[in-house]
């Protein structure tokens, strides 16, 4: 079974696009709710629920976690499709492992600083979050386009993702960090600083690797190396990118919103 | 000149030169020249070893991936170090430190060195090609003879042997450290080592042994999993090679800490002490971090292989039991390992950037480190033993000629141990000052692990009961492992109940407990596996007599050693001390312990000698030596490069010994 | 019939071995004397544990060794064993029974823990400072400071423990109890000594280079003797006004001697003998006059000018007042 036919089975090109848009709108609304929930009604639990919802949407609709369920035991082991499913399993195993790093970082955040608020620039936080969210949408567009054989759409989507990702990275590392440092939150200033730089730093490192990955698929895509049937690298880059987004879905409230209203 | 002779001469010359080379380096650091410096004499083994290789095989050694990688590592270390030094000089910071480079320079150099090892040895060449859209052949042909073991091979069997040899080398290093510091402990008073030297050797002993275990289980899983499931290789052969090869620079970093002031924190690296130790601490962190990635990637590969590459008809409950053990182990390695990496990374950053995670003066919390650390390091102890227990379950039926009693229960108990193991970590922290109310729930959860472990023991006994028992060397090691592990396991509950642990914590009782569990759960089964599968890999058997000599040297002295450890521990002997109070009245017992330790060392030497002579002159064994039902024994030894020439189908239960006419696997008639 | 015979013999042997092992595995043979109220329930739990261990050890090893002897393959026998795949009832039994046993042990353990943690509101308070690499004990009621922990017998004492540097752990084997000292917080240790005598507190958490030497006497005496000791200590400290003596006492209380000798022998830090007035060689190759300034600076900021041949970061930070430092310098001056 190829990517192509799978998407077709879901109901054609337009449907896939509409679904991408719907999910994006859902995520955006949830983010707004999240922000106001944090200011009005300080509850870490509520923030966690919203973050889990958002993560669920991304996992299911953008990262297609359901594809892991491919029931292909009876298929010939030497086919490309079987190997792709194995590769996909490998990719997800890696993500599961990586997830534990970020979970550990969240433990550090709450272990050291409880539900105290870290005084960061809210506007910047919201802006970079929005940028990353939008990038996920375009990543999804790029991947779906590739699956549907729309090479131009793929190039466009990837390029926009790459640009947005770079904006995010620059925004965090070269704008937020200096601003925070200027306001006295430095790595050695105390728990808040240590947490802020460590969490954003580890995340930024993953964004950077994601960008390199995107660069590779963009180049190979321009060279015409991918087909609707054979483009696991694209899928992997996309899933990885969404994973980085999911991490931020948890980091954003943990860093910016917790304790905001209290 | 005779090659062997040349090798020995080079070894000796290289070693002698090495000692003075490192002593000379130490002179630049400390200003005093000590030709008998312990660290130099240990590090010189590496120089001597490389010289010996050169002596044996000549200049060809320079063309191997191993050498290129190591050279790359050194170059990268220096390049990274100088880079940071220059930057620091430009920024107006103190460019140098006590060990030549400043600490950040060493750490950055370490990262660069790891990367240059990876690129230098060529393990990522194929991936680079892929990223440029080039295709590479699915397999590369390995060179003939010794060379394939020093080069990047994608064959899981070659990688398995590479893992095994590396594990044995590290075992020798770790054991050597133990023998050195055991000599110091032979009586009270301090004669041989300074405090710092003792602490460093003791800490390195712990971590080198643990890394040796992680690599050793890598050896078993790599070699056996594809063979047992009837695959041609692991799911991701390149990742497999990668996971092995990064363990090499990791080991080098660990040893290098000896030259950089050592570290005096034990293998646990608790801050705030680890935030103050010399630069060697950072090399320890770096080494463990890289070794951790080796473990994680290896585990992902095992899981993917076991889930996706099984032969036709091999349903979950028809898998060889070792596969279950590997799966359970890999689940832990894959996930929990990240937490030890993270905890060490946080201390590294605390040292480098002043981030006060565990520094109370900066609002940090030292106990948080212990939670993160043990969240890995407790489950990790089950990583050490599950494959070993899998080997025990695998070999018992063969040598008693009866089915494995309660196969499904044994399979599930592995998963049970692994999963319960995730929720018991704080039993290492009963005295740490963590929240008091956490102690009782962790006591309950810890005690629960005894249940699935017990299922294994009772099923083993039921397997043995009424069987037709044979006692060749592998079976001896299996039974020895079983008894030793039982002693280790049974010494667990007294640690697990809080009030008794308040007495036992950080005493030699604990040291006795974990040597028992680790020997019983890993060392003994590992030797059993080496004896059992040696013919499969080489077509020759290891010498039985020497095997029995080894076993009877090892087992009694080991039991004496750990029993005495537990005894002196209960009487007031603390862990991790270079010297003890003569008033404890344990000098004689300590001497006995040290003598036993040396006998254990001797038994390992007997094994090495055995391997050495059996490789050349061992009895030829090409068939089903042990009369096993397992698929790998149904084809002639040694195994060809891509395993089975004909695929097989599973048509029965794996351990139906004694059931006439039953069959586990059926090979296809013609080639695939 | 034959089968039953094997079971019976093995079962009997299990019992015998259990009883024999248990005779030797007794807390009273294996552990140091009981010197605290808390050690009684703990030793009771040890005995329970050892009894269970003895039984389980016998339960596994006896059938094992029995099998090796009785079911060994006879020469010439090429048959396989009997085909028994398992027995679900048995498996359930040996899952459920141990489950019950371990839960019971944990339950008993929890009760045991509660028993040893019983709080006496009248407990005497002592402030314990563990530092690299020594102990100091301060009695807040009387202001006495000492390096020996004197305790009155049969009275609960609450040790409020602090560390200025790294983790340490307070352990007196005869008391059975152990508690870590954590920098940045106060940890508590409650014990009721019941046996007069001299014991030792042994630091049980690796705390750096000289961890092994971090031991100090713990002396349990009668209430009268304790009061007398306090009075004597108070009188002693009131009597001292000489800065040299004051300095000497500070040095003793802070464990400086763990690293600095006063007789010229080598140690972790430079010896003090002849330090004052000498020309001190420094690690960077230069040298400094060993005067009051240099010594005072080296106490306050040990890394400022390091003595050649010694390592930076080896010396912990102390929070002496200037007067105290001056007293210590006066003392060092006398060590010619
Ligand atoms: C291979 C490694 C291994 C294994 C398998 C185990 C197994 C167990 N360990 Fe061990 N442990 C270590 C390695 C291991 N441990 C190490 C390395 C340390 C020290 C780390 C450090 O500080 O450096 C340590 C320390 C350690 C501590 C901390 C002690 C301290 O520092 O204060 C504790 C406390 O609970 C503990 C408990 C247990 C228990 C309950 C088990 C159980 O899994 C044992 C279960 C098995 C049995 C119980 C026997 C068989 C079962 C039956 C026959 C069934 C019936 C049994 C009953 C009803 C009881 N271990
Ligand atoms: C698999 C794990 C493993 C193994 C096999 C061993 C093996 C041995 N261990 Fe230990 N040990 C640990 C894991 C292990 N250990 C850990 C994790 C710690 C805790 C560290 C900490 O507290 O942080 C520890 C701590 C530890 C201590 C406590 C130290 C202290 O607290 O101060 C002691 C003390 O006796 C000890 C002794 C020994 C001895 C005598 C052996 C012997 O069995 C060794 C036998 C000898 C050999 C196997 C080597 C033979 C080699 C030669 C004869 C020379 C040839 C060498 C070359 C050419 C390189 N070990
Ligand atoms: Cu203080 Cu060990
Ligand atoms: Cu544990």
Q: Overview of this structure, please?
A:
- The complex is a heterotrimer of chains A (262), B (672) and C (336).
- Chain A has helices at residues 3-9, 12-40, 44-62, 80-113, 122-147, 151-182, 191-222, 232-257.
- Chain A is mostly helical.
- The radius of gyration of chain A is 19 Å and the shape is elongated.
- Residues 1-11 of chain A have low confidence and may be disordered.
- Chain B is mainly α and 672 residues long.
- In chain B, helix 7 (156-185) runs antiparallel to helix 22 and helix 11 runs antiparallel to helix 12 (321-353).
- In chain C, the strands form four sheets. A five-stranded mixed sheet of chain C has the order 3-2-1-5-8.
- With 336 residues, chain C is of the alpha+beta class.
- Chain C is elongated and about 95 Å long.
- Chain C contains eight helices and twelve strands.
- Helices cover 41% and strands 18% of the residues of chain C.
- Chain C has helices at 2-24, 27-30, 39-70, 88-116, 223-239, 243-253, 292-300, 322-333, and strands at residues 124-131, 134-139, 144-146, 149-152, 157-162, 168-171, 178-181, 187-191, 197-202, 215-221, 279-281, 287-289.
- Chains B and C meet through helix 8, helix 13, helix 14, helix 15 and helix 16 of B and helix 3, helix 4 and strand 7 of C.
- Bound molecules: heme-A (2 copies), dinuclear copper ion (CUA) and copper (II) ion.
- One heme-A (HEA) binds next to helix 7, helix 8, helix 20 and helix 22 of chain B.
Are there runs of chain A of 5+ residues with pLDDT below 50, and where?
Answer: 1-11
- Average per-residue pLDDT of chain A, rounded, comes to 87
Q: By helix and strand content of chain A, what is the structural category?
A: mainly alpha
Question: Nearest-angstrom radius of gyration of chain C?
Answer: 29 Å
Number of helices of chain C: 8
Largest sheet of chain A: none
The run of helices and strands of chain A is: HHHHHHHH
Order of strands across the main sheet of chain C: 3-2-1-5-8
Average pLDDT figure of chain C? 87
In helices, the fraction of residues of chain C equals: 40-55%
Span from first to last CA of chain A?
A: 52 Å
Molecular shape of chain A? elongated
- Got a strand count of chain C? 12
Q: Radius of gyration of chain A in whole Å, from Cα?
A: 19 Å
Number of DSSP helical runs of chain A: 8
């Amino acid at each position: 079974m190829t990517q192509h036919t799978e998407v077709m089975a879901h109901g054609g090109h337009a449907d896939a696009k509409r679904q991408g848009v719907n999910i994006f709108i859902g995520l955006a609304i949830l983010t707004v709710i999240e922000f106001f929930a944090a200011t009005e009604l300080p509850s870490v639990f509520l923030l966690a629920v919203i973050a889990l919802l958002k993560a669920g949407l991304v996992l299911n609709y953008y990262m297609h976690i359901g594809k892991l369920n491919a029931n292909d035991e009876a298929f010939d082991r030497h086919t490309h499709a079987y190997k792709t499913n194995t590769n996909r399993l490998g990719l997800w195993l890696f993500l599961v492992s990586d997830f534990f790093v970020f979970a550990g970082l969240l433990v550090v955040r709450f272990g050291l600083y409880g539900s105290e608020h870290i005084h960061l620039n809210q506007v910047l936080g919201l802006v970079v979050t929005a940028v990353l969210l939008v990038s996920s949408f375009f990543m999804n567009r790029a991947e779906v386009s590739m699956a549907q054989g729309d090479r131009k759409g793929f190039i466009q989507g990837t390029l926009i993702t790459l640009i947005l990702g770079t904006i995010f990275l620059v925004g965090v590392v070269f704008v937020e960090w200096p601003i925070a440092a200027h306001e006295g939150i430095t790595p050695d200033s105390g728990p808040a600083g240590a947490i802020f730089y460590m969490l954003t730093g580890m995340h930024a490192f993953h964004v950077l690797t994601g960008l390199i990955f995107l660069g590779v698929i963009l180049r190979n895509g321009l060279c015409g190396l991918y087909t609707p049937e054979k483009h696991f690298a694209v899928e992997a880059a996309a899933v990885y990118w969404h994973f980085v987004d999911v991490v931020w879905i948890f980091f954003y409230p943990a860093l910016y919103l917790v304790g905001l209203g209290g | 000149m005779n090659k062997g002779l040349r090798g020995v001469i080079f070894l000796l010359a290289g070693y002698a030169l090495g000692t003075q080379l490192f002593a000379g380096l130490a002179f630049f650091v400390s200003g005093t020249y000590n030709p008998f410096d312990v660290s130099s004499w240990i590090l010189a083994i590496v120089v001597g070893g490389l010289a010996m290789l050169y002596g044996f095989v000549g200049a060809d050694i320079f063309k191997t991936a191993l050498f290129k990688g190591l050279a790359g590592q050194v170059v990268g270390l220096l390049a990274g170090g100088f880079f940071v030094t220059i930057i620091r000089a430009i920024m107006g910071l103190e460019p140098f430190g006590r060990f030549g480079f400043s600490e950040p320079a060493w750490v950055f150099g370490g990262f660069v060195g790891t990367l240059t090892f990876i690129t230098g040895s060529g393990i990522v060449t194929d991936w680079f090609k892929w990223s440029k859209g080039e295709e590479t052949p699915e397999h590369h042909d390995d060179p003939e003879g010794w060379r394939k073991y020093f080069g990047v091979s994608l064959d899981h069997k070659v990688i398995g042997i590479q893992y095994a040899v590396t594990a044995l080398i590290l075992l020798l290093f770790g054991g050597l450290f133990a023998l050195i510091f055991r000599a110091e402990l032979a009586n009270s008073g301090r004669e041989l080592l300074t405090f710092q030297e003792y602490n460093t050797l003791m800490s390195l002993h712990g971590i080198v042994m643990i890394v040796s275990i992680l690599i050793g289980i890598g050896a078993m899983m790599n070699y056996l999993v594809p063979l047992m499931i009837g695959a041609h290789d692991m799911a991701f052969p390149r990742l497999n090679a990668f996971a092995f090869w990064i363990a090499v620079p990791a080991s080098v970093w660990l040893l290098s800490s000896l030259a950089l002031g050592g570290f005096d924190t034990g293998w646990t690296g608790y801050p705030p002490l680890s935030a103050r130790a010399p630069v060697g601490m950072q090399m320890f962190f770096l080494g463990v971090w890289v070794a951790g990635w080796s473990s994680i990637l290896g585990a992902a590969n095992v899981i993917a292989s076991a889930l996706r590459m099984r032969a036709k008809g091999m349903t979950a409950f028809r898998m060889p039991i070792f596969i279950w053990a590997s799966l359970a182990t890999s689940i832990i390695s894959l996930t929990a390992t990240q937490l030890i990496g993270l905890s060490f990374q946080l201390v590294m950053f605390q040292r480098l950037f002043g981030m006060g995670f565990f520094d109370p003066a900066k609002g940090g919390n030292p106990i948080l480190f212990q939670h993160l650390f043990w969240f890995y390091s407790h489950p990790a102890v089950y990583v050490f033993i599950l494959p070993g227990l899998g080997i025990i379950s695998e070999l018992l039926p063969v040598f008693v000629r009866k089915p494995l009693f309660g196969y499904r229960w044994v399979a599930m108990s592995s998963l049970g141990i692994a999963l319960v193991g995730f929720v018991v970590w704080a039993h290492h922290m009963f005295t740490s000052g963590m929240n008091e109310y956490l102690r009782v729930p962790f006591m309950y959860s810890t005690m629960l692990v005894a249940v699935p472990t017990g299922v294994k023991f009772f099923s083993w006994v039921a397997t043995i009961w009424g069987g037709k028992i044979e006692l060749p060397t592998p079976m001896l090691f299996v039974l020895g492992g079983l008894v030793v592990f039982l002693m280790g396991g049974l010494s667990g509950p007294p640690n697990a109940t809080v009030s008794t642990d308040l007495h036992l914590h950080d005493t030699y009782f604990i040291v006795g407990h974990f040597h028992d569990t680790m020997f019983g759960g890993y060392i003994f089964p590992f030797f059993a596996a080496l004896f059992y599968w040696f013919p499969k890999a080489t077509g020759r058997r290891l010498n039985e007599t020497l095997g029995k000599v080894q076993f009877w040297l090892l087992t009694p002295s080991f039991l004496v050693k750990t029993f005495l450890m537990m005894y002196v521990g209960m009487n007031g002997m603390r862990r991790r001390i270079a010297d003890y109070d003569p008033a404890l009245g344990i000098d004689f017992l300590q001497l006995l312990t040290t003598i036993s330790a040396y006998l254990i060392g001797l038994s390992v030497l007997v094994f090495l000698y055995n391997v050495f002579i059996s490789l050349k002159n061992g009895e030829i064994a090409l068939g089903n030596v042990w009369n096993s039902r397992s698929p790998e024994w149904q084809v002639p030894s040694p195994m060809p490069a891509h395993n089975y020439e004909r695929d097989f189908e599973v048509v029965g239960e794996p351990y139906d010994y004694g059931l006439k006419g039953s069959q586990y696997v059926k090979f296809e008639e013609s080639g695939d | 019939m034959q089968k039953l015979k094997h079971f019976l013999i093995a079962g009997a042997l299990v019992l015998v071995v259990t009883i024999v092992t248990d005779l030797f595995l007794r807390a009273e043979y294996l552990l140091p004397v009981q010197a605290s109220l808390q050690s009684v329930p703990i030793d009771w739990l040890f005995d329970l544990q050892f009894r269970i261990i003895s039984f389980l050890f016998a339960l596994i090893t006896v059938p094992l060794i029995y099998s090796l002897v009785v079911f060994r393959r006879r020469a010439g026998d090429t048959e396989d064993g009997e085909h028994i795949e398992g027995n679900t009832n048995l498996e359930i039994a040996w899952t459920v029974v141990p489950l019950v046993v371990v839960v019971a042990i944990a339950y008993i353990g929890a009760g045991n823990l509660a028993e040893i943690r019983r709080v006496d509101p009248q407990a005497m308070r002592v402030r314990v400072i563990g530092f690299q690499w020594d102990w100091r004990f301060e009695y807040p009621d009387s202001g006495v400071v000492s390096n020996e922990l004197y305790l009155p017998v049969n009275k609960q004492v609450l040790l409020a423990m602090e560390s200025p540097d790294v983790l340490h752990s307070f352990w007196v084997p005869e008391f059975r109890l152990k508690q870590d000292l954590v920098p940045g917080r106060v940890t508590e240790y409650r014990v009721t000594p019941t046996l007069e005598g001299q014991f030792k507190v042994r630091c049980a958490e690796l705390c750096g280079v000289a961890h092994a030497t971090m031991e100090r006497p713990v002396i349990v005496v009668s209430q009268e003797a304790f009061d007398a000791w306090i009075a004597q200590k108070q009188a002693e400290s009131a009597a001292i006004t000489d800065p040299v003596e004051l300095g000497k006492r500070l040095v003793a209380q802070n464990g400086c001697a763990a690293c600095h000798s006063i007789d010229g022998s080598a140690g972790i830090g430079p010896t003090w003998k002849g330090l004052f007035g000498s020309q001190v060689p420094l690690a960077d190759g230069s040298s400094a006059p060993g005067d009051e300034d240099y010594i005072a600076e080296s106490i306050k900021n040990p890394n400022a000018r390091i003595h050649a041949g010694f390592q930076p970061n080896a010396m912990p930070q102390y929070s002496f007042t200037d007067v105290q430092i001056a007293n210590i310098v006066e003392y060092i001056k006398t060590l010619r």
